[in-house]
Input
Amino acid sequence: MLTRTGSALAGIAFSGALAELFAGTAAASAHTGSTGYGPLVPDPDGLLDLPRGFRYRVLSREGAPLRSGEGAVPGRHDGMAAIAGRRGRVHLVRNHENGADAPLGVPTVPGLTYDPAARGGCTVLTLDPRGAVVDERVGVAGTAVNCAGGPTPWRTWLTCEETEDTAGTDGYERDHGFVFEVDPADPRRSGAVPLTALGRFAHEAVAVDPRSGVVYETEDAFERPFGLFYRFLPHRPLGGPGSLRAGGTLEAMRVPGVPDLSAVREPGTRFDRVEWVPVPDSQARRTPIRFQDFGRRGITHAQKLEGCYWGGRSVYFVSSFARASQGSAADHHGQVWRYDPHLRWLTLVVVFGPDSDPRLPGESPDNICLAPGGGLMVCEDGGGAQHVYGLTRRGEVYAMARNAQALETDASGQATEWGEFAGVTFSPDGRTMYVNCYTPGTTFAVTGPWA
Output
């Protein structure tokens, strides 16, 4: 995506196969502010630039006291979901991508801490029907590098550890690389129990099929062999909070004849012979899963598998970028794939960025969600100023928000680095967009004339 004063973008191609989102769109090109909600207006407070008519509130900021009295708000805000609560309340479940060296870790709380030596986890903000924060507390602690995750049909949050570190690494007392369930209404009901059957690997995000209960998972890997796309077949599908502890079968996706998804370049390309292969050792006791032997036909890999979400009757997942110089089969600046479990079809529906344009940022889509009026909201994670972008049903691309908080400036005072966005999500009624700034950790609520 190419930014020109925050409102002009180019280099995104679409497929009409994304019917739920783009309604027959074939392509998208550059726009100069005539699409979306208009140009971004600089924020006089220097926090968040939005289109005219929109406004934001800061719900939470790193370092402030948690309302629960459990300590300070942790840093490195990442993946997030808005889950409906009782009596019109909304629970925001927010990840903190903290490694062992994080300066503001998630406070350890008895009964909610997996590994006292780890500093990642989740916090939960509870909002009243007017959107005011009435509580903020620890959801799970003692986990590591909690990047993304996904909501369940039974109104809990699955938070994912994006690491494969074992006990003894960085002082950790227990193995990491698991998924944990967080009950936002009462975190003590879920505790700090690793869902080991969902595999031990560098998890990024998950999505649950609301009809079958199958859990889809992405693996974020920078180096070869790259990550895999998984599905987990639970023994107790749709069993409610805690049901995933009953175990199940973990499988990885194989697309016959396609060892690397980056080699697929044309939007609309469809594969109708997708296979699922049981993972030999889901706990990666000796060998990381992506290195394991899946037989002579191999398995399908992809660099930087990140966002994963359910929409319509399909699961969508994101490859943030691919670089041939790093071992991928080809270059791209982002792909969105759609898998239809009923038809067992895999379709490439969105491609970000022409390879020939050196001005494009190194990473394009990261966290991604469905917008209430159709289309997508995409968190940028690349070079230069950082944005939340919208993609409309017609394939138009527009800037929805820009981070005005400069992390670094040059000698003349000009900003040179900004923190990325993460965790974009909408309230259950679609009237409020919530989004995190990763650094400095800030959670915003954005309201205005949504279409």
Q: What stands out?
A: Confidence is low (pLDDT under 50) at residues 1-10, 16-34, 355-363.
